[in-house]
Amino acid sequence: MADDERKVFLITGASTGIGAATARLAVEAGYRVVLSARSADKLEALAGELGGDDVALAVPADVAEWEDNERLARTAIDRFGGIDVVFANAGFGAERSFLGDSPEHWRGMVLTNVLGVAYTIRATMEAVRDRRGHFVITSSAAGRRALPGSLYSATKHAVTAMGESLRQELNGTGCRVTLIEPGMVDTPFFDSPGEGRLEADDVARIVIWTLAQPARVDVNEILIRPTAQDG
After folding, report:
1. Given pLDDT bands bounded at 50, 70 and 90, which one contains residue 168?
2. Residues in Cβ contact with 118 at an 8 Å cutoff, skipping those fewer than 6 apart
């Protein structure tokens, strides 16, 4: 397949975990990828692993900053001609207590998890609509039910609502919107690894499966839990 025939897949939170695993599978599936996260070193290493600038473009950015999202979208379009898929995946968590973590940590989490997703959507929406493309958004099983003392859970409830709002706005355009709602995943998101968790590749495979469905099929929500997860 010629490079100009390969679809373009933009991923935020791409340097590790689900984002990096999805980038690897996307390249295997024939996409060119635009990789974004705050960690420039990790992004550059991943882009090199995936084939360099002709296939994988690293664009360090903070999704909580509007100007970074504008630059990310513009770079993808300038380099590859458009955007077919956006995976709004950047996010991080906090302690399950309203007495835990600092107010500064909370602020950063809310800005990244909620406003960052909205900024990414806004910056890329016209380009995705032009290609009748696909938005994939990382919410969480915690975005389905409240967790004790969890402001993180509240941010993911907001993301779940945002995904449905986006679907309604894009209805009739040919675009598709999918919320991915993982349970416990063994990724750097958590401070320590644990048994009975999904692996990043498990979620990445589902993302790629969703994109491969016929254009008439819009898979709106996928809740993914490890077999042993309670609740």
Report:
1. very high
2. 162
In a domain, 231, yes or no: no
Tally the domains of the chain: 1
| Burial of 194 per CB tally in 10 Å (0-12, 13-18, 19+) | exposed
DSSP structure class, residue 57: E
Check residue 37 and report its DSSP letter.
Answer: -
In a domain? residue 118: yes
Q: How confident is the model at residue 123 (pLDDT cuts 50, 70, 90)?
A: very high
- The residues annotated with a catalytic role in the active site are 152
Token digits for 29?
A: 């599936």
CATH number of the domain at 7, please. 3.40.50.720
Whole-angstrom distance, CA of residue 226 vs CA of residue 215: 29
∠ CA 152-154-156, rounded to 5°:
75
The model's pTM? 0.93
| Model pLDDT for residues 16-50, shown as the tens digit of each residue | 999 999 999 999 999 999 999 999 999 999 999 99
3-state secondary structure of 163: helix
Domain residue limits at 118: 3-224
Is 13 inside a domain boundary? yes
